[in-house]
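Note to self: keep these together.
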Amino acid sequence: MTRLLLVDDHAVVRSGLKMLLSGHAEMEIVGEAATAAEALQMAGQTHPDVILMDIGLPDKTGIEATREIKAKFPDVKIVALTIHEDEEYFFQMLNAGASGYVPKRAAPDELLTAIRAAAAGEVYLYPSMAKLLVRDFLNPDHSAEEKANLDGLTDREHEVLTHLAEGASNDEIASALVISPKTVERHRENIMRKLNLHSRSELVRYAIRKGIIKA
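Structure:
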């Protein structure tokens, strides 16, 4: 029996998931949560095997929730079920420790396959998302030049880079490092220039490849 916790801020979505999953004898829904805080609390109370995690939660992102839950309950498997199909969210969820990534437009069988794979200790990626991972792996810019570029960052820029890659906003970084948001923005511009990066998704992939952020 696979114990499931549903995390989504829309009650209609949770209701639909319950209808879909309750028809499968090997699956038991042990709880629901509408926020990241509730998800962390329910994970401790219900001891799920697999959590279906939305990314767009009202208090924190599902990425942050995944990271916190995996830190406290490392054996729990988390499958992202989200409307987001862009690579920035995808790579950040994988880095946070997700065992699967399924868009909400996927067929029910795809979600069931992802849940079963996660419960078995495997990883399931929706085909269009898996292509992003393969493309990134085959990208020839995984080079020694990156290490040289990283060595060109100041200690403060390295700190800002880590926070940015973990999905923090400028205001959150400013608060954590006790600097102003304008200073964070200036560091961010310097980091992107020094590393020859052009978007946050490129920065996230870079940080994952370099081992700057870990699941």
